[in-house]
Specification:
The protein is α/β, with parallel strands linked by helices and 401 residues long. The chain has 14 helices and 20 strands. The strands form 4 sheets. Strands 7, 9, 10, 11, 12, 13, 16, 17, 18 and 20 form a 10-stranded mixed β-sheet that branches. The chain binds L-homoserine (HSE).
């Protein structure tokens, strides 16, 4: 019998307990041993809950109990999660977590400790909720050089952009709907400003390239400036607007960014709607792969955490090697990155001035929108920003993937 302590009895923590207690039999078969939840750590009490008697408020109880072999961390945030997880690993316990802040910041160090202690630090649920994406990167695509990762990594914003596209509603209305459905937080900055997606692409990139990618170094722009009119232009161009977390290796340089992008309707990520997530990975041998599923929500995310518990049981006393070196991967400035841009300007702007600044452009028109809108040729971001400075006013600009 393997005894587990679950830290945090919120949405994900309670989901993990539910998965472990509902699928006990199949989990025991696959793990090779029965898995039982012995403690639940939370500041709150849960009177009437079926697991009420397992709730403790002091991590010291879990730390001292030698029967605990696996710690599941679903508290979120860096502290005290980091302190508890580090203690557990130093005691040789396996750890499964859904906490992207913790993994993005301390992943390399915690993997190193797990290696030294012949145990495991696993974090499948920290990116893409229930989608198996980290394990394929760690264990399946091992013969490839990953050249590009591009993902819809935030369910809330994907839901909002889908609603804006399908119902023609504004950003504010879409946010209200997402909040009513319980997807967006009351203070939704982490989702709409791209911070959540930024941590996730930092984790994916660290694993794909094998070195620490600091999320602070990733250019991050959210969807707050995307309007219903932008969505109408996108439709007219046969494209969708998606908040993409991307990183790539190009001419020996690494780039990473989070921003809204215009993608062709023929692109596999364009069909990813509502709260679904998808991660597109291009390897130099395997070519294009895509991983799709529920990127958020109680049971999908809990399923990924519980699968990591199973892996911890199966690999007891044996470290699953994860290549994520602490040495920082130098990211190149995106101002050197080359791409096309979609630009909207007031109708009185002269086409001649536009051509002077951008060279040859491709005009875009939408019925009822009296503006000058166009797609530029391929340009470096710094040249684009320089060209834009020549104009007193632009309505919006969106990058093309
Ligand atoms: N707020 C996140 C999302 C939850 O909407 O995708 C999962 O990390």
């Amino acid at each position: 019998m393997i005894n587990v302590a679950v830290l945090g009895y919120g949405t994900i923590g309670s989901g993990v307990v539910e998965v472990l207690q509902t699928n006990t039999e199949v989990i025991a078969k696959r793990a090779g041993e029965e898995v039982s939840v012995k403690y639940i750590l939370d500041l709150r009490d849960f009177p009437g809950d079926v697991n009420e008697d397992k709730v403790v408020h002091d991590y010291g109880i879990i730390e001292k109990d030698e029967d605990i072999q696996i710690v599941v961390e679903c508290m979120g945030g860096v502290e005290p999660a980091y302190t508890f997880v580090k203690k557990a690993l130093l005691q040789g316990r396996g750890v499964a977590t859904s906490n992207k802040e913790l993994v993005a910041k301390y992943g390399a160090e915690l993997i190193e400790i797990a290696d030294e202690k012949n145990t495991n630090f696993l974090f499948e649920a920290s990116v893409g909720g229930g989608i198996p994406i980290l394990r394929p990167l760690i264990s399946s695509l091992t013969a490839d050089v990953v050249e590009k990762i591009s993902g819809i990594l935030n369910g809330t914003t994907n839901y909002m952009l889908t609603k804006m596209e399908e119902a023609g509603i504004s950003f504010e209305e879409a946010l209200k709907e997402a909040q009513e459905k319980g997807y967006a937080e009351l203070h939704p900055e982490a989702d709409v400003e791209g911070y959540d997606a930024c941590r996730k692409i930092a984790i994916l990139s660290s694993l794909a390239y094998g070195q620490q990618v600091d999320y602070e170094d990733i250019y991050t722009e959210g969807i707050t400036k995307i309007t219903a009119e932008d969505i109408r232009y996108a439709a007219a161009m046969g494209k969708s607007i998606k908040l993409l977390g991307s990183s790539m290796k190009k001419n020996g340089k690494y780039y990473a960014m989070v921003c809204p992008m215009l993608i062709d309707n023929s692109h596999p990520l364009s069909g990813v709607k509502d709260v679904f997530n998808a991660i597109f990975v291009h390897g130099n041998m395997v070519d294009d792969t895509m991983f799709y599923g529920k990127g958020a929500g109680k049971l999908p995310t809990a399923s990924a955490v519980a699968a990591d518990v199973v892996a911890c049981v199966k690999h007891k006393g044996e470290h699953i090697s994860i290549l994520w070196d602490r040495t920082k991967l130098p990211l190149s400035d995106i101002s050197d990155f080359e791409r096309k841009y979609f630009v909207r300007m007031p109708v009185q702007t002269d086409w001649e001035r536009i051509h002077e600044a951008f060279g040859q452009v491709e005009p875009v028109a939408v019925d009822g929108l009296d503006e000058k809108a166009f797609i530029t040729g391929v340009m470096k971001e710094k040249d684009f920003n320089h060209a834009i400075l020549r104009f007193e006013c632009i309505i919006n600009r969106i990058r093309l993937d």
